[in-house]
Amino acid sequence: MTMILGVPLAVLFGQLLLGLINGAFYALLSLGLAVIFGLLKIINFAHGALYMLGALTTVVMFDAFGINYWVALFLAPLLVGVVGVLIEYFLLRRIAHEDHIYSLLLTFGIALVIQGVLTNIYGVSGLRYSMPDVFQGGVNLGFMFMPYYRGWVILMALLVCFGTWFMIEKTKLGSYLRAGTEDSQLMQGFGINVPLLVSLTYGFGVMLAAFAGVLAAPIYSVTPVMGSHILIVVFAVVVIGGMGSIAGAVITGLLMGVIEGFTKVFWPEFSSAVIFLVMVVVLLIRPSGLFGKEA
């Protein structure tokens, strides 16, 4: 059996796969945070709760209405995105011109309300969601076994991340979004409905979180507190990549997932802290993050 540093090669590749899966979720969630902060300057602490809401909506739609995974993959993010638009319109817009700390506190409160209400309804024991039949099993690559659904998660995360980056950086809509947040009065003078753009941008960032929740439902136990467990890690990833950096969120999310996965092989006790150690080092060397712009 081939060994590297005393560890079987199959184990290393297995941890690489797990790291890529975690990194795919980190990338999607970090991307949503980066979109919201980069374009709206809102520190969205409700992101984890909305990720959870995407997963829970998927389970509830199946149990109550028999809506399958493929429909939920598009419908659940859309429904949660509407919730995000309502949050921006009725709550965040009221403090849009205040200091960033107010949006942080408000979204943190929203997250606690969502989590508390759903905990009273569903408890914390966890709900299960069956994996679609088409993804049962996997393929033997010789050096590792690749479950089909894990490969699907990584592929979809990469496609959505690339599509989001392309839309924001390379299309006219993306230029409108960037311009509307930098000089809203000028854009309104050209007849652009800037408040609507802001609501849709926040809703889109929320949809990315909910989409990650739908992908997570067949893998993880769906509980009302699942978002709080991952949120702090995702914020660390965003800080490492650079607040507001779209490419930084995606690349750093995948990279941190892989680093965390390999740390579980060589130093399991430290795996839950390695991302925060990287964050400390990056902030000491480059406070704006690896891909962020200097203030």
What are its keywords?
single chain; about 300 residues; mainly alpha; two-stranded antiparallel ribbon; 4 strands; about 5% strand
Word description of this protein:
The protein has 295 residues and is mainly alpha-helical. The chain has a domain at 28-228. The chain is 71% helix and 3% strand. The protein is built from eleven helices and four strands; from the N terminus they run ββααααββααααααα. The chain has helices spanning 9-40, 47-65, 69-90, 100-122, 148-170, 172-182, 184-189, 194-216, 226-241, 246-266, 274-285, and strands spanning 3-4, 7-8, 138-140, 145-147. The strands form two sheets. Strands 1-2 form a two-stranded antiparallel ribbon. A two-stranded antiparallel ribbon has the order 3-4. Helix 1 runs parallel beside helix 5, helix 2 (47-65) crosses helix 9 (226-241) and helix 9 crosses helix 10 (246-266).
Explain the layout of strands and helices:
Elements: E1 3-4, E2 7-8, H1 9-40, H2 47-65, H3 69-90, H4 100-122, E3 138-140, E4 145-147, H5 148-170, H6 172-182, H7 184-189, H8 194-216, H9 226-241, H10 246-266, H11 274-285
Antiparallel strand pairs: 1-2, 3-4
Helix pairs in contact: 1-5, 1-8, 1-9, 1-10, 2-3, 2-4, 2-8, 2-9, 3-8, 5-6, 6-8, 9-10, 9-11
